[in-house]
Amino acid sequence: MNIFNENRQICFSTPRRLTEDTSWHIHIPLAFYLVQQLRPKVIVELGVGAGDSYGAWCQAVTELEIFATCYGFNITSNCKHGRNINESKFEELVSYHDQLYGKFSKLNHTTAHGALSYFDDGAIDLLHINGLNVDEFLNCDFDLWLRKMSKNGIILIHGINVKNQNICFSKFSAHLRKNFPYIEFPHGFGLGIAAINQFAPAAIKCFFNKNGVEIGNIIRFFYLLGRSVLLYSNEKKWPLSGGHE
Fold first, then answer.
1. Which of 2, 85, 201, 221 is least surrounded by Cβ atoms within 10 Å, i.e. has the fewest?
2. The pTM is what?
């Protein structure tokens, strides 16, 4: 399985949403690739932050014309050190989001535990846990979320290389690493990807079945693509919340 062939062109797309929160910019080409290969019917993000990662999922759905439903949750935490996005920024995100993606996507305020009630078991194809914005993570209900994953579902957990992670977040990332096919992209605060069940597409499975050299090439490929996004966003050559130039 060669991930560098001509059928992977969406990973070269220009991101529409690039805000001053650059923590996820370097992973956007990888996000595009994952949506193209997985063709998910349900995408869920816990911790939408400024919306750069969530915007990437939604953009990929529209560009690929996938029939999908997306759910983005601005997580409300009881933790006194919570870093929830402030209300004015969330309102700006909603305004931007609803015009482009409101027909198939919904943004919500809730707790991580409360988000569970939105989904039946086996419903979620792609779950992104944005660790930089989820402080009181899942109340440690790992198994409850794992049951929500579909037969070809994948879980992404961002922020695995951030120091002083909360205990629940660290335990969950360690649990994924130990129990499922798993790969880590160490750049951009660290992004771990786990294939929860056995029916992930071959182009996703290839991430976990390569030898060390091949995995290194995959990581380097997406690092270099993501680095170009990060450089452009840092230089403000793209609008903060606009479309293509």
1. 2
2. 0.88
